[in-house]
Design brief:
Strand content: under 5%
Shape: globular
Order of helices and strands: HHHHHH
Helix content: over 70%
Number of strands: 0
Number of helices: 6
Amino acid sequence: MPHTALHVMNDEHQAIAAMLRSVSMLVAQSSRERKLPDFGLLRAMLFYLDEFPERLHHAKETQLLFPLVRRRCPELTAVIERLESDHARGETAIRGIERALLAFEMLGESRREAFEQALQRYVGAYLHHMAIEETQVLPAAREHLSEADWVDLDAAFAANRDPLTGHAAPEEYRALFSRIVSLAPAPIGLG
């Protein structure tokens, strides 16, 4: 039986990956062209990564999904502990990227390389993190969680309303998502 939580997690992973790749593409393009990037757009995209995945998606994985999988599949305890550690460091990691971007914006080219390297480490680590979830945790959840387990997971993840997964942006986020979609390159935007 298909579960809402699995669909939502898959959609959110795709949206996160697309945002990460779009940020990387923008930065690489500005570097190739020896131009400064659109700092406002980059800040908006990084804010999205902080606001939605860090605060909404990861919290539900850590608080709901991981404990159930750990209970049903104790052989995945080390994997889950690593993923939880990644989540715990996530806010600090995105703040570091945002600070490196600010340093690049305020101090110029002398800070470009540090920002680009920090961003690439972040993007690579994040994509790797999601790959572990998709190849180890989610298959185990599909196989070992009970229908009763899925009831709470489905309800919790169904409440996620990430605009990049096809939902209308909440009023307070409309300007942010309008900016991202109008200026960012595909697959996130139209720019």
